[in-house]
Amino acid sequence: MALTKQQIAQRIAQELQDKWYVNLGIGIPTLVANYIPEGIEVEFQSENGLLGMGPFPVEGTEDADLINAGKQTVTVLDGGSIFDSATSFSMIRGQHVQLTVLGAMEVAQNGDIANWKIPGKMVKGMGGAMDLVASADNIIVAMMHTNKRGESKLLKKCSLPLTGVGCVTKIVTNLAVLEIKDNAFHLLERAPGVSVEEIQEATEGTLIVNGEIPEMAI
């Protein structure tokens, strides 16, 4: 059975390590803050100038002055700090963030990512995504494996305007966990009840399957 958005975030949270600074992009990535594994401490950073971001607030307790880069209301943990965006981007460009989690419209088998613009549609701009993909060494993408028409979003080559080139290291979709290396998608795990054949059918790019592929533990 394909994963929900919450389950995708829960699986990505398993990649977190103690004492890491982590940037969460707009969409599914913001949900990762709700699933921090027990026994570790992680500092979530938002590029609009927030460090120490907590989980989403309970309905009725929202503070309109506390928002993330996607303008969603968030919480701030004890010890958290708020600062200007120039300082925030100095942190990003200075490579002080150990993991960046982003959403995407398309990812290519060489690690290219397109996540900011669909030609012909109005957009406000690329935002902080270009700094994140240019500065981060560890980028995990959270996305649906196919679009609403059932077409693959894991491609040989991106068709949409690129955000970054050769930068994605790992992808967690509603069907699978994949690593990008050697110009191909390497299948690491499959969603519970989803077959390797279903993943192959949903992947346009080159998919490498080595041995028995385990189901995700979520």
Automatic annotation (TrEMBL):
<keyword id="KW-0808">Transferase</keyword>
<dbReference type="Pfam" id="PF01144">
    <property type="entry name" value="CoA_trans"/>
</dbReference>
<dbReference type="InterPro" id="IPR037171">
    <property type="entry name" value="NagB/RpiA_transferase-like"/>
</dbReference>
<protein>
    <submittedName>
        <fullName>CoA transferase subunit B</fullName>
    </submittedName>
</protein>
<dbReference type="InterPro" id="IPR012791">
    <property type="entry name" value="3-oxoacid_CoA-transf_B"/>
</dbReference>
<dbReference type="GO" id="GO:0008410">
    <property type="term" value="F:CoA-transferase activity"/>
</dbReference>
<comment type="similarity">
    <text>Belongs to the 3-oxoacid CoA-transferase subunit B family.</text>
</comment>
<dbReference type="InterPro" id="IPR004164">
    <property type="entry name" value="CoA_transf_AS"/>
</dbReference>
<dbReference type="InterPro" id="IPR004165">
    <property type="entry name" value="CoA_trans_fam_I"/>
</dbReference>
